[in-house]
Every structure is written in C-alpha cells, then in structure tokens.
C-alpha cells in the first residue's frame, strides 16, 4: 500500500490535505492527474447509470438541508448520538452500554475508548451560532433524492419503475478513518435510488447487483479481486430489508466498496410522516396509491478511484522496454482502463534541441489537445519518458522524429502491447478516435 500512496503523491494523483500545516483530519486533495481520473470515474458511473440504463434521471441536491430530514432518516436518533466505541479492525460500532468486555463482539478486535458520538458534522446556517440555526452536512446523498421524490416525479412525468442518480459530497465524522482515501471524513458518493413496486423489489435487487458488478469488470477490475457478501440480518442497517456488499481485495484486506440495499418503503413513508406531505405514488392505470420500494446502489467515488488505482498498479521486474536505460530497475505501470486513464496521449519529440522537430511536435500536441487529455513531454531520454507515461497509465505515446518532416508521419506506441506503428499526421485524429472507441 505504501508504494501506491507514494506513487499517488509523486505523480500528482492524491495529496494530503493541508500538507504544509501537517495534514488535516484525514482529508485528502486530488492533484492534477487525480482530479482528471476521479472525473473519469464519475463520468463512467454517470454514463452507465443514466445512458446505458433506462429511466434514470440525474439530481444534484444541496449538501445543506433541513435538519428535519436527519430526524426523519434516523441519523439523529439515539443510536447515532450515544456513547460509541468502534472496533479498530472491522470498524463496527457499538453502544458502549451494549458491550460486554472491551473486545469487539464481531471479530474480537481492540475497541476505541467510548465517546459521545454523532457521525453527522454539525454546522450553523446564518450568522448566529444558536440551536435554531443548527444543521448538518449531509452524511449520505440519498436523502436529497427521497425528499425530491414528488418534484422529480412530476417534473419529469415518470412512471414506476424509475431511478434517480446523484453524485455528490458526503461528510461523516468517522471515528477511525484510514487506509489512505479508503475511509475519510469528506468523500463523494455516487448513489442511485430505484423506485419500484414492492413485489418487484427482489427482482430488481438481483438486476442491480449484477449490473453493478459488471460495471467493475467492464472497467478492467480483475474478477478474482471482487466478491459479494450478503449482510446478515442482525447487521442490517435500520432501514434495510436486504443488503449485499460488493467487496474488493485491497492490500489491507477484503473491504466493502459498494452497497446494494433494499430499503423497502422506510424512507418515503418516514419523510411523509415527518413532513406531512403525501409521498405515495399514484398508479394511473389501477388507481392504486402506494409507497414504492427503493433499491439503492451506493458507492464512494473516492473509494472506487482507489479500487481502480490499486487494481491497475503493476510492477514489472527488470523493465519492459529495451529502450529503458536501467533495464534492471523495476518498472511501474498503471494499467488503467482507457476511459479512466487521466492522460490519454503523450506527445514526445525525439530530441528537444532541433527547432523543426520541436515545432512539429508542438503542432501535433495542439492538434490533439482539444480532443483528448494530452501531455507534452520533452525531458530526458525517450525510454525514460515512455516509463514516466506508463507509470501514470497514458494509453498512447506519439514520437515525433527525424522522419516526421519528410514523411509527415509519427510513431504511435501502445501502452499495453508496446507495439509501434507509423501513422500519417493527417490520419492521427481518426486513428486515435477509433482506438478510444474500441
Ligand atoms: P463502511 O462500513 O465502510 O463505513 P458504510 O457501510 O457505512 O461503509 P454506506 O453508508 O453503505 O457505507 O455508504 C456507501 C458507500 O459510500 C460505501 O460503500 C463506500 O464506498 C462509501 N463510503 C462510505 N463511507 C465512506 C468514507 N468514510 N470514506 C469514503 N467512502 C465512504
């Protein structure tokens, strides 16, 4: 894991937040390449959930919401504000008064000291720091979807079944954050809530579990590193009828990356009760009114970023390329899926002291830059530059050499096969587009 953290920092993927002040509260910043890659992860999710699927619309709700929402959702109820201890190993939390002895009843791990604890991050809205202006940063994005149920339904003229997808920040005052960006106090969630007739909930649960698993495999995650775990009845969250965790084999063990939940009608019926609004769905055909069941798919953007990063990380002993100067050295590669790689193309002039050649390389760079995330790199030997690009997962490297001015072509090197081919500059955009599509 240490190697992954250091690569992430060295190459501008992830930095410790407030690093010059010694870091802050287990928060992290995404650097230039990290920001690109995280956007790619979010785009891949949005594409899958709203384009590849039927009847799912987007929402972007506010982080700050009425504190009544958190009462209705159960986040402010006794269980969330009691003295809690957390197991340092499995992160299960227990009411201190329910605990017999000092060890975790689930895994026998060591527990933290008891603390009065509410996971919600409190803040004040308005100039006065008084009880009536207190609210919370949202602890999950889904509540914004439930309270907008009628708005979305009516404005989009939707019919059940349908889904609402949202990507956004969430905040939890985790007692034991850690493992780099795996568990942080500020993170981003990608959640989809699927509203359906109660009797179809089981069928849709299976569908979404399968669909979400395929998403990881289609984006290159190795099959053997993913498994599912049925959450046992006693461990289910207060709202859940059924939950399956999708887990990934991290260097620090198998851990949840995504949860698929059957939330029943808990959320809508509770919000109806607390708000006094009718949040039932009216079935035009049958004249029935009912609370739909909700199947939720919930994944962290940061946590899936880490999953893709870890899975793509490879060390190649002895080096891959003959052009590498130090062939005995270990080469690092990020075999990221093409949709996720932060840089798609590198443009490399063979030498940097020939003005004509540099001019051509810059022209190729300008040609590609508006269309693909492209880097220009002229520092060091060509072998070193290939390695630097492999290390950040760049898909294609284009070398502009002495033949370019005569033949009007360049060398295109593929990251994975290392195959090199000559391509005419005039055909470059088309050739690359074809590669990116397949
Ligand atoms: P965990 O048991 O790991 O704390 P959870 O069961 O509380 O997670 P959910 O509430 O189901 O998690 O949240 C859904 C998803 O949101 C998780 O699968 C994870 O990808 C992400 N997530 C939750 N908490 C965090 C966090 N503190 N940091 C980063 N991602 C998180």
Features of the shown structure:
BirA Bifunctional Protein, domain 2, 7-stranded mixed β-sheet, Rossmann fold, binds adenosine-5'-triphosphate, 438 residues, 3 domains, 5-stranded mixed β-sheet, single chain, 30% helix, alpha+beta
Describe it:
This protein is of the alpha+beta class and 438 residues long. It has 3 domains: 2-71 and 123-309, Bira Bifunctional Protein, Domain 2 (BirA Bifunctional Protein, domain 2, 2-Layer Sandwich), CATH 3.30.930.10; 77-119; 336-437, Rossmann fold (3-Layer(aba) Sandwich). Helix content is 30%, strand content 27%. It has 13 helices and 23 strands. The protein has helices at residues 2-10, 32-52, 67-72, 78-81, 142-147, 149-156, 201-218, 266-275, 301-312, 355-368, 382-392, 404-407, 428-437, and strands spanning 14-16, 28-30, 56-59, 83-86, 93-95, 115-116, 121-124, 134-137, 162-171, 186-196, 226-230, 242-250, 253-264, 281-282, 289-290, 293-300, 313-316, 331-334, 345-349, 374-376, 396-400, 409-414, 420-424. Strand 12 (242-250) and strand 13 (253-264) form a beta hairpin. Helix 2 (32-52) crosses helix 9 (301-312). The longest helix has 21 residues, at 32-52. The two termini are 32 Å apart. Adenosine-5'-triphosphate is lined by residues 91, 140, 172, 174, 183-184, 187, 189, 256-259, 298-300, 302-303.
